[in-house]
Amino acid sequence: MVRRTRLATALLGVVLLLTGCAGAGALGAGGRTLVIAIVANPQMNDAIELSDRFERDNPGVELKFVSLPENQARAKITASTSTQGGEFDVVMISNYETPQWAANGWLENLRPHIEASPGYDPDDFIPSIRESLSYQGSMYAVPFYGESSFVAYRKDLFQQAGLTMPEHPTWTQIAEFAARLDDDAAGVAGICLRGKPGWGESLAPFNTVLNTFGGRWYDEQWNARLDSPEFRAATEFYVNLVREHGEVGASSAGFTECGTRYGQGQAAMWYDATVMAGTNEDPSSSEVAGKSGYVAAPVRHTEASGWLYTWALAMPTVTENKRDAWSFMRWMTNKEFVQTVGEEFGWNSVPPGCRQSTYDIPEYREAARAYAQPTLDGIRHANQQETMTEPVPYPGIQFVGIPEFQDLGTRVSQQLSAAIAGRISVDEALEQSQRYAETVGESYRETQ
């Protein structure tokens, strides 16, 4: 059984010096200040822009956002929450952290707050998303948006090349399409794939490739399997595809960089989070709006291969002003917020993959007609039974749901990135990665 309750030294190993943050619950010039740690991406930035409305409706409460890129946000939030530092009243975390941190007693049980909020309707959350943020039957975080993964592709470029994208492509087909569509002269890569180090960056898409290729991080006895033929085949495929037909500077490209390249027309395909579609289809920021199709995550030996992920809001147990903190969390994750974002920023900006009612809004259905159903299908099929070939002793699809994975995954992603950059071979990358994984696996075998 996975030991979610481990107060891992792996978590403490990511502790960074926290600077520039007022203490949580501090008294600001206008009254109470809520300090909110948030990941910097377009959907979260929309929430920040709308935050003055929350302050207007909650006199005496001032919001202070600490907005950082994903890797930095993870480290800072983990450092503060794991040490019970109290710097933040509300933190943005995912379904990776939530069950583990709830078991450790680091997060507030939200059930009493939800039950005391008429109209909030937690049953409206997509079931798999809601369950991924729960521990022992209670929610410990509420989702801002949910996602799986799929392929965006340029319909115009496919048509010009005489190619047809199937609704359920294989990775072999994707590689063939990338080779056909790679056009250095036009500045168009065959495909964009993350190569940036980080357990939540390059390892997210890579792990879905690994799963469908039949690989796994550990067998049921916690033996590391990074030196297995399946793991090697997946790694060689991913590295070769990015090196031969991926974007320029792929070893330092993450979700944001790939999104920029695809939106500027510099890639024929992009495999990544389903949440990308809203940005792709926004004519104010994308040069390819209206030109993309969306299909299921590619497979090899499985029926499906997409991931399951959600960015969500949680409240550290040390938060002093729990009532105001919950009021903000409720405001940012309720049905009315979805309506406001659609009306203010356009329906492609709505946080997707979270509330089922979002998909009943006529304006959203029209704006998201190209990607709404593929998003829901991806989330529906994102489970270990459909995306993996062998049983594993850990939860998670695109991550290994143990505390040590923050460090282990980042170390392995650095090896993967170095192989993509051509600084080391795949053999060297896997040899070092296997050693990292063996150390972690040994500690789990000792307590079985």
TrEMBL record:
Q: Which InterPro entries match?
A: Bact_solute-bd_prot1, SBP
Which Gene3D superfamilies has this protein been placed in?
A: Periplasmic binding protein-like II (3.40.190.10)
> What is the top-level taxon of the source organism?
Bacteria
Which Pfam family is one of this chain's hits?
SBP_bac_1
Output this protein's name. Carbohydrate ABC transporter substrate-binding protein (CUT1 family)
Organism, by scientific name, is Amycolatopsis cihanbeyliensis
